[in-house]
Amino acid sequence: MTLERNILLAFLAGAALLPFAVTDQYILHLAIMALFYAVLASSLNLVVGYVGEFSLGHTAFLGTGAYTAALLSTQAGMPMWVTIPLAGLVSAVFGFAIGAITLRLQGPYFVIVTLSFAEVLRIVANNWIAVTNGPMGLAGVGQTLFGDVAVTDKAGFFLIVLGIAAVALYLSYRFVYSNAGRAAVAVRENRYVAQSIGVDPFGTAMQAFVLGAFLAGLAGGFYAHYISFVGPEVFRFAFMATMIIMVLLGGKGTLIGPLAGAVIVTVLEEYLREVQELRLTLFGLIVMAIVLFLPNGLMGFIALRREQQAAKPTLNAAKERTV
Amino acid sequence: MTATTERQPLLRADDLTMTFGGITAVKDFSFHIEPGEIVGLIGPNGAGKTTCFNMLTGFYAPSNGRVRFKGQDITNRKPHAIARLGLVRSFQKTNVMKRLTVFENVLTGHYMASRQSLLATFFPGEAVRRAEREARESAAAIVETMGLAQRMNAPAHLLSCGELRLLEVAVALAAKPSLLMLDEPAAGLNSHEAGTFGAVLKTLIGRSIDALLIVEHNMDLVMSVSDRIVVLNFGRKLAEGRPAEIIENRQVAEAYLGKAAA
Amino acid sequence: MDLFPQFLANGLVMGVFYALSALGLTLIFGLMRVVNFAHGEFYMLGGVSGWFVTNYLGLDFFSGLIVVAAFMAAVGWLVDRFLIERVRGQGEEPGILLTIGLSIFLVNGTLLLVGPAPMKVAGAVAEGPLFFGPIAVTKLRLLAVGVGIALIVGAHLLIRRTRLGAAMRATFQDPMAASLAGIRTGHVYAATFALGCTLAALSGMLLASIYSAQASVGGLISLKSFVVVILGGMGSFAGAIAGGLLLGVAEAMWGGYVSMGMVDVIGFVLVILILLFRPQGLFSIRTERA
């Protein structure tokens, strides 16, 4: 707990120094994308790792946030300090509505219905031309932060996404290490025990789900301003695949895992940028390899090693007792 | 009105009936538990004991009948809502959170004591910190009471069978129940372990819990801890009485051993 | 002119292919309990390999169909033995993740090899339309539907009338008892998976002879197949067929009378409604056991 907190703080502090140490625009862009993905992966992790159900529809919240910010900016000329929080809130409302339906389901049904919701939103974004401008998307999303202050360089965007990441990690940390977070883990580990100690599985899952939607919405809002364009692609499965691999590789159910996964995969993606298909082909293989050989991701692997070290004497004691 | 509420038992079930697609698992089962009592619920395999547990705790909705707990009608309430009233149960198959440590399991059991608003979750104040501290102290104390202090930080999946049973009870106790219901808590224990376990259970009454309902196949254990025993057979109540009376009961012997032996 | 009969006919034609693909998935998902998110990719591979054998190897349609069936059965067998086998009995989640990985791999591997362009499988007959009263159906469609129906009947006979089918039924009733009775359950699982994979692939090849195959079509097909399986009730043969036809007709009507662009929404809305109100499927009479 304390170790995890200290690592997160060190990570954020180190990241805050980056724009002062690095002026290379390309590296700053990479760092921005890594943090953007870190928020996204952390938000998915709240659902996958703490609700314990696998959502394939998380792009619904990314997309909702992105469209919300883009519309508020292009239609009403609102600045970022308004649009990004609102993007999170609108996504949270969507999360509540979608969660009210999907969280009654488990296993494959949950997966299929969450995916269905993301697909429905993508099709709507593609066809509701009056609002979303259809496949053309919404271009020219503004770059005003507040008042007359506009964000003009990568360093500025970096600081904004760092702020969002700090919020995301703070909220996730508070949630995971609270009574509510423990309740969510109880539901994930054993639904019956959870109920017998007074945990409402549906309500608890809803909290994690809505928080995840809120954070994904913030990320989406940021994305809209940074790229300054939003199209139906934000609902595409490619984003989903990237998020999944980040969470799985880093280790679901930990806070550092998705962060590490986001950094590693963003760098990996950059190396393979020229060849999108090859990159995703490799991602597919990596996902399969993780499931077969590293089911709890990198963090799970490290934790297991530490646990084995720590438990060695007690393991023997346990053996003696059962014999 | 006041006179009747004063004399109300802690738990009272009337005419509980459960049918699964035409098969009647439990039929017109009525019983009650008084404060301070340890009640044993016994019967041959398939007699409907676990079904009763599930109806009393809201995991099944009874086809007929009513359950009252502390004077409130709790029939058809959700399991977590019933638990929040102080009726907490364990499960027949080993049921703990296997990947968490012993301490984490018991700490998680304190869920109800440390419930807080979403705002307090994200911006914890002094009250939340105090509740958290108290939950941790209480969890450590319960682990101690159940004799698991040495295994405090061991993941549950590394525990022995006997230790797991103790942990299950510890998790249930962490929820600070008024009535604790244990479903075969001694399954898989040897006779020495069962004896120790029974002694621990007796110390709980009046100190940690008001009453205990226990389903168990280990007759020595049930007979030694129970104040009163209820016998179920084919989903119906066959007998009820003090342990000594039940041992003498011909019908009970028949149900367990068959007609010839009795 | 009233277009209703024409929409109905179009819907039924599509429905046959949905049913065929869903039959494959009902074996894998309904019986084996593998939540196969790569199902649509098997369908897609059927279309792409059909295009390859008819255009590059110059086989005629029917020989091509047999080659594709054999090839995809082998693919299915290998996937089960080398991937699914390793997570069998570990609950649903590893299977879900594994097949998501497989799906990502297969789509992009195919894109890498053949690119995103549509690929037309050479048909067995000419394109000319036939008229039945107010309904026009091309000969090609009629033939593909005929082959599709023949395949459905064939799969039914395989499961009901052969030793393999008996072994399958025994294994899915009670794997432990089946293996004690001397059935090599590992082979039965692999054979079932291979059969499911082949049915999806042939559906893909037949449809690619009418329209065309595309590497990226799989995700949508996977979802629609799940929709049909859930609609028809898990593991139900008749349910998958009824569900397939229903989805085909519903889409044709929606596309004809309401909006062409939003056709694909139908399936998703249907599945959301079904799971909310009748999670055991539309046609299943089995009551839920506690």
Automatic annotation (TrEMBL), chain A:
One of its GO terms (molecular function) is branched-chain amino acid transmembrane transporter activity. The chain crosses the membrane at residues 33-52, 59-78, 84-103, 155-173, 208-226, 238-268, 280-304. CDD domains: TM_PBP1_LivM_like. It is a multi-pass membrane protein. InterPro entries: ABC_transp_permease, LivM-like. Coiled coil: none annotated. It comes from the Bacteria. PANTHER family: HIGH-AFFINITY BRANCHED-CHAIN AMINO ACID TRANSPORT SYSTEM PERMEASE, HIGH-AFFINITY BRANCHED-CHAIN AMINO ACID TRANSPORT SYSTEM PERMEASE PROTEIN LIVM. This is Amino acid/amide ABC transporter membrane protein 2 (HAAT family). It comes from Azospirillum brasilense.
From TrEMBL, chain B:
GO terms for cellular component: plasma membrane. One of its GO terms (molecular function) is L-valine transmembrane transporter activity. The keyword ATP-binding applies. GO terms for biological process: D-alanine transmembrane transport; L-alanine transport; L-isoleucine import across plasma membrane; L-valine import across plasma membrane. Residues 11-259 form the ABC transporter domain. The keyword Transport applies. Gene3D superfamilies: P-loop containing nucleotide triphosphate hydrolases. Keywords: ATP-binding, Nucleotide-binding, Transport. This is Branched-chain amino acid transport system ATP-binding protein. It comes from Azospirillum brasilense.
From TrEMBL, chain C:
It is a multi-pass membrane protein. The keyword Zinc does not apply. The keyword Cell membrane applies. The chain crosses the membrane at residues 12-35, 65-84, 96-119, 139-159, 188-213, 225-247, 254-277. This is Amino acid/amide ABC transporter membrane protein 1 (HAAT family). Its main location: membrane. InterPro entries: ABC_transp_permease, BCAA_transport_permease. Pfam families: BPD_transp_2. Keywords: Amino-acid transport, Cell membrane, Membrane, Plasmid, Transmembrane, Transmembrane helix, Transport. GO terms for cellular component: plasma membrane. Belongs to the binding-protein-dependent transport system permease family. LivHM subfamily. It comes from Azospirillum brasilense. GO terms for molecular function: transmembrane transporter activity. It is found in: Cell membrane. GO terms for biological process: amino acid transport.
